[in-house]
Amino acid sequence: MQNGTRLAAVDLGSNSFRLEIGQLDHGQIHRTEYLKETVRQGNGLDAERNLTPEAMQRGWDCLARFGERLAGFKRSQVRAVATQTLREARNRDEFLAQASRVLGFPIDVISGREEARLIYQGVAHLLPQSGERRLVVDIGGRSTELILGQGLDARVMESFRVGSVAWSMKYFPDGQFTPQSLQMAEIAAKAVLDEALNAYGRDTWDVAYGSSGTIGAVGDVLTAAGWPAQTVTRDGLDWLLDRLLAARSADRIRLDGLKEDRRAVIGGGLSVLRAVFDLLGIEEMQAAQGALRHGVLYDMLDREQGSTDIRSSTVQRLATKFDVDAAQAQRVGKVATSLLRGLRAGDTPAELERAQRKLLWAAQLHEIGSLISHSDYHKHGAYILDNADAPGFALPELHRLSLLVLGHRGKLRKLEADFEDVSFVHQLMALRLAVILCHARRDPDLKGLAIQSDDDAHRVTLAPRGDWATAYPQSAHLLREEMVAWQKTPWTLALA
To answer: Do 281 and 316 sit in the same domain of this protein?
Structure first.
């Protein structure tokens, strides 16, 4: 990306929605605008884990305002991510369909560990370079992320289903604070976080940092009360607990530095934070400037540079773990990307590079399920990807990759895919044809082979040279079967 490029990140959190706009300057992103709205989607989940109409409308209204501010941005300059509430919501697709329309950009639901990774990236990029071992804690509305890292490298990441909104709703539903309710909230948080003791013990980190949300709010209150600036201590947490008990209810809290939108969730947030301090032996925590949205911005830069895209490393790790045939994966990838270039002749170089990179990932992993069983290995592979711990990937991205792996062979009607998505169809067809042409597990003869797509007519034409079918009768037979397979879809594959 060029210096001066504007980038925007949208964070759909459980408590607040945030929009961060920055400008690229020699590898650093400098803020030009920041918007935050308290939406409280986290308390809009009903007993069946569906977002209520009111909660959805609050979200849509906020994103419409964000969308107006993002008018004029290109798709490659904006990324929106959603976290725990939308990971849980059973009707999230209904919300996301309208949300993407009003925002004007797609919204990625990310896994808990991917959220943790991005939080660490945001914190690390806004801290001075250092060799210190860092513990980063982010207490959100419905989840808490714990990360161990050094420099820009996040090494241990986990997300726990405990947060300020969820705990406030559960243990302080009427906003009343008693010694019993605060103690129960803290004990319950420890029960959820207890397994963190093994991975995040006091000997694994040098400095503790707190990101965003609860920790930022507690830091503001303690600073206003005379404690060291943006530093949270165990004594400070004890002092704040006493203030809540003295107030007896959320609506009676009077604390300098406490913003109005934090009043209703301070009890739950404090309970979780005290649990983290006790379990991990923390005496002091620094309130960090970086957060999830900053990590999203810097991750966008990495995605634009294939050599630093963590998704490529994730794919390689999975391929190694499941012992794929690397030579065959490389062979299929080479042929598939060659075909894709013919299908997408009208793309810009940047668009084509992104499409090819994703197709190469599918080629690299298309036989990943073979380690489980050769029978229906494509189904096993798709299942693995839909349930994998895959740093760098949002859940929709991972599912799209799993659909390519599932669809690289066999019947196409089994795919619950959008065949109006021309980019996906081109990738799928290129992968299927490449697998056919490489069926003998040797480099195929592609001399004189041409392919083109009439997207309006939903028709792809493959034209081999005149003597090709005679020279390779088995491949020609498989291609004729492939023509039949595509007849069950809105697309046609023809041999010229």
So the answer is: no
CA dist list (Å): 97 to 10, 73, 122, 160, 403? 16, 20, 28, 27, 20
Written as tens digits, the pLDDT of the chain (496 aa) is 788 999 999 999 998 999 999 999 988 999 999 999 999 898 899 999 999 999 999 999 999 999 999 999 999 999 999 999 999 999 999 999 999 999 999 999 999 999 999 999 999 999 998 999 999 999 999 999 999 999 999 999 999 999 999 999 999 999 999 999 999 999 999 999 998 888 999 999 999 999 988 999 999 999 999 999 989 999 999 999 999 999 999 999 999 999 998 999 999 999 999 999 999 999 999 999 999 999 999 999 988 876 678 999 999 999 999 999 999 999 999 999 999 999 999 899 989 999 999 999 999 999 999 999 988 999 999 999 999 989 999 999 999 999 999 999 999 988 989 999 999 999 999 999 999 999 999 999 999 999 999 999 999 999 999 899 999 999 999 999 999 999 999 999 999 8
Statement to judge: residues 145 and 95 lie in one domain: no
Structure-block tokens of residue 281:
């032996």
Q: Is residue 120 within 8 Å of residue 157, measured between CB atoms?
A: yes
Q: Domain containing 347: what range?
A: 305-445
Residue with tokens 């400095």: 207
- Considering the domain boundaries, does residue 479 fall inside one? no
* Helix, strand, coil content of the chain in percent (nearest 5): 50, 20, 30
State which amino acid sits at residue 287. Answer: A
Q: How far is CA 192 from CA 117, 143, 169, in A?
A: 20, 11, 16
| Residue matched to tokens 């639901």 | 109
User: What is the spatial distance between Cα 419 and Cα 417, in angstroms, rounded to a whole number?
Assistant: 6
3-state secondary structure of 237: helix
| DSSP secondary structure letters along 358-409 | HHHHHHHHTTGGGGT-STTHHHHHHHHHHT---TT--HHHHHHHHHHHHHTS
Q: Do 382 and 273 share a domain, yes or no?
A: no
Helix, strand or coil, per DSSP, at residue 312: helix
Q: What's the rounded Cα separation, in Å, for the pair 196 and 107? A: 30
* Contact indicator for 382, 403 with CB cutoff of 8 Å: yes
Is residue 63 situated within a structural domain? yes
* CA 58 – CA 190 distance, rounded (Å): 32
Which of 77, 109, 141 marks a domain boundary?
109
Structure tokens given for 448: 């004189």
